[in-house]
Amino acid sequence: MNKSKISLEKILQNLIIYRIFLPIMILSTGAIGTLIYINELSLEQQQRNKAQALASIVELYIDQAERILESISASTSSKDFSVFIESAWEKYGYFDTFYILDNNLSVKLLIPPDSRYTGLDLSSIPAFNNVLSEEKSLSKPFISLRTGMPTIYMTNLIEGGGVIVGELNLGALQEAITLNTSSSNSEKIFILDQSGTLVAHPNFDLVKQQTNMGNLKIFKETEDQSKTFFYKYQNTNVMGSASPIEKCNWIIINQSPINDILRPYYLAIIIASIASLLIWLLLFIHIKVRLRKKIVKPIKTLSEGVGAVARGQFMAGKEIASTSATFSEFNTLSRDFMKMADSIHSRELVILEKQKELEQHKANLEEKIKDRTAELTLAKETAEQANKAKTIFLANMSHEIRTPLNAILGFSSILERDTNLSFGQIDQLHTINQSGHHLLKLINDILDMSKIEANQLSINNKPFDLYEMIDSIESIFNSRANEKRLKFTIKIAENVPQFIDSDEAKLRQVLVNLVGNAVKFTNEGEIKINIEADKIENNKTFILKVSVVDSGEGIHEEDLDYIFGAFKQSKSGNNAGGTGLGLAISQRIVNLMGGSISAKNIEPHGSSFSFSIPILISDKRPIPIKKEFKTIIGIAPSSKEITVLIVDDIKNNRNLIKSMISPIGFKILEATNGQEALDLIKVKPPDVVLMDMRMPVMDGYEASSKIKADKETREIPIIAITASAFDDQEHKVLASGVEEYIRKPFNPEELFDKLEQLLHIEYIYSSDLDSTKKQRNDLKTQDLDILSINNVTTLKDSLLEGNSKKIREIISQISQESTAVATKIQKETENYNYSKLLQIINLYLNKESHKGDIT
What we know:
This protein is of the alpha+beta class and 855 residues long. Helices cover 52% and strands 17% of the residues. The strands form 5 sheets. Strands 12, 13, 14, 15, 16, 17 and 18 form a 7-stranded mixed β-sheet that branches. Strands 1, 2, 3, 4, 5 and 6 form a 6-stranded antiparallel β-sheet that branches. About 1% of the residues have low confidence.
């Protein structure tokens, strides 16, 4: 292969350029730039100082005028007041006219005198509307019809009653602006009132036209007076400084075109750069000539000798290399080269032999690498196909399981609302619901494990209330612990932050898995949850430490090694049932969050599961969302009739949704696939579409895209309903144009919420109509009169023991005597109102025991 060669002369040349020339040019350019920057800062300061100085002049002018007006108003009791005010008008020259108004804002006196204005009512003039309620005021600037100059009304209350008004001529401000404006660099200094209207400007015509410049960036952002603004004005880049005039709430702006300011400095950079370049070129030529003569030429001669030796011309190479040079170092190098040439010649044959052997080994190795690469490629393709097949299998199985599970849970939820069911039927529905949710949890665990193995599980951090999440965990498991008569406590250290940035859902999943196992495998004693935090110094990060300790039977020593493995269970775990994925998922989540988890036995019996993860204190406070769940029984009369199109190829799914929303008052249309839905929408456009995404003929993705592509139907909202196995499918569904997304199985409230958000409808709730009905359904002492005394006493004993199994058995016996009373008792036990039940039973038993005392 031919390789590019770089000569020594080129190397030395590059060395001079990059190590000498470029640093000099960079330093000189930097020095010039620094000088320009310093001068620019100086110009900015000068511009700010000029604006502030003019602001002081305006404030002084307004202040002097106010003092004159105050002095005049304090002398109204003088007998020669008219003479005094006329003298002040002539002496100071600030005001064009003085008005003395009575309490009705009618003119009493005018200076200079003009009989036409005497008695004239000025209350209709907007500038005088509020003068009687303010001690002093300034009006908005206006152009005087008499003088043609910018003018303001300045008012002051008279102690004896009435108002003195002065027409203050602002022409002096116009003159000050004109005198202080430099014409050399197109500098502009002007004054704006609080609305952005010009008060003074070098171009007086703009002032006379009452031009408004309130859209300037500098006018909108004048809080920081030390700041210089750079913006575009009339297609010119300008630098501006502003200074507010607090006395009258005006602002002075000083702006200059940037090009006019910096043009001299740009010229300086060009001249300095050209001068530096010329000096360098002369220096470079001189150094290059010296280097070629003293270094490059001797080395080139020696290089020719080396080349001759390399070609096998040893004698010719020695003759060339023996040529003397200016430097002794080159002569020494030549002698050493002669010795080296002899050594090279003697070893050349040995090297050639070894090279043949290496070529043979290389050929063999390349053949082996090709074989191994082919094997690895085949293995990779096989693994990818297996993983893809696994994903497809899980997606299909999840869809096939979630679809009937949606019908099971949906119809059972609808039946639970039926008030005509017997106690036994309600208990059976509870069992169906619990079994369905248990099956759903098993499916979700398997899917979570699959996503973990495929590296598809990700952490989504956002602010949330850690204390609120812990309270929800406590409310979930407190009742289950009470049912088993276990002591359940949660202890949070004082330094644990309340608001944190982390993945709330995954942290909750780990806690639920660990606490749920503790409650499941503990039959007596207590369960303790300890939460602590270690702060990392000089950082907002904490290490959150959580331990769940129980007094159960503990973990067998041989189980500790693999308890966190997928589908691995201890002996007690096998007896209790489950998938064996909870701990494996918890470990993967904790590791993904950057933490670690461990398990150990504690003496004398019990186990402890602990994990620690890094968390970040949140600067934002999450907005709490509290929603009251009430039973929806209809659509408010104020809402229009709503037509819902249900698109699903499975009849049971359509029937389920119809059973949910039809009793509420929604009008229903049905379609079995996407094409049928498109045809129906053209004939009867619905208010909303509930679209299943997986259907024959035309699926929901294509149908949704076509609905949104048609300008006549694109405004119809679509809610996608899918039994997808993975959460990330939501992005694919939303990309088809649908507004909302619901994943099977879902509850009626979730669907009603989506319909309410999209259609802006109002519902009628059961709690809005018959709050007294609930009171009638509460258990009363007299309700026990129809029960046998034996069942009542047995119920009392079961409640005192806290034996849930016995409680269910006795309630079942009571239902044979009265279904209504059994339902009321069941409701109280589900809410663990044991103390209330015992109080009612004791009142009943006391009443029964005193029946025979009456003689």
